[in-house]
Design a protein that fits this description.
With 399 residues, the chain is mainly alpha-helical. It has 16 helices and six strands. The protein has helices spanning 23-33, 38-46, 56-59, 62-72, 76-80, 123-128, 196-199, 208-223, 236-249, 255-267, 290-304, 309-317, 322-325, 343-353, 362-374, 381-388; strands at 109-110, 113-114, 145-146, 151-152, 225-227, 233-235. The strands form three sheets. Strands 1-2 form a two-stranded antiparallel sheet. Strands 3-4 form a two-stranded antiparallel ribbon. Strand 3 (145-146) and strand 4 form a beta hairpin. The longest helix has 16 residues, at 208-223. Bound molecules: zinc ion (2 copies). Residues 157, 159-160, 162, 185, 187-188, 190 line the site of one zinc ion.
Amino acid sequence: MYANGLIEDVLPARLAPLPDELLSSWLMRLAMAHGLKLHTFCVHLFGSRAIWSRDIDKSADERVIHNLATKTNTPLERVRETTLASYCDTLFEEYKLYGATKWVLPVGVYHRKRTLFGLQYCPQCLAEDSEPYFRRKWRLAFVCVCEKHQIILRDCCSKCEAPINFHRNELGDHRKAVADSLTHCYHCRHDLAKTFEEQNSQPFPVTQIEVDFTNKLLQGLTDGFIRVGETVTVYSHLYFAVLRQLMKIVRMRRTCIESLRQTIAANDESTIYLPSVTNKSTTDLQELRVAERRCLLGLARYLMTDYPERFLRLARQHKIWSSIWLRHLEPKQGQRQPNIAPFWFWQIVHNNLYHPRHQPSRQEIEGAIKYIRRSGGTLNKSVLARLLGVAAIRYPIIP
Ligand SMILES: [Zn+2]
Ligand SMILES: [Zn+2]
């Protein structure tokens, strides 16, 4: 038995994780139920292993999971489900315990603090919970609205705009013996559960279409497959790969993409027009704030509706061809692990939107140069281009 009365194998207060609860939220509730400081509680559970100085929801390893399962008397599989790794196979094929993972919002761990806006919440869900807790789905980049309350999720404190650090309620506060709440902003103490009235007065209220789409995606994670069109159903991770690609493409700064964005926003009241890209285009999707992700998701959703007819019509109308849609999704020479377009998407794009822009190979160019030299003609790019029947030569010519 430990000095404070905890027995070694099973904890006295055996709280089970709540539906879709995040590991970190569950740990915090367990510590509160045992009347212990979070740090003290975690030392009892895991010894000297670092828990809060990393993104534990993302990087919990088997030892942490086994320990928790034993000490809370919870089935191992249920403990695994509290981690983000449990989305492996349905959301992504590959999962890295450390580093960026597609769709998983980064929380930006700095020592024991979260500096980024990677944990979202619905204030109304928190307010209605008999025991407020944070959901696993709130860490996903495509979850921008609460499907239950039809409001946009928040990704920071509505009063001081600090990132969510619910685990810091007493952590680092020497005056406090035990955490008393999960819903108070660690920075200004504002109650996150008391902010929903102001949300309803937002200029772009959440529509039923957005809610239905969020439900469809979440259901896809449960089922492992998602319906694409009238007759096509695909594995969910292959659907999410394309959704991610579309969200990236509709964010591009090209003129054809800008006119596509305008057309969609003009035709669909559920899509918010995204006039210009506020972040650098190299910023990955999961690094964007919730408002921008919501706009991109809306544009991608519009393209995926009535697939492939609407998608093809808009692509042709705005002259957006396969080279753009399949950008970075076609294997390149020398690439070790190429991102390959899922076949269900590649086939439609390749069969309908392929516009060859022939570029002669190096050998063809060299052959043409030899021919011009032999025949005593002037050697320059426009002569070469005419000879090869193309608009321009991209390669430098060595005279
Ligand atoms: Zn809610
Ligand atoms: Zn605050």
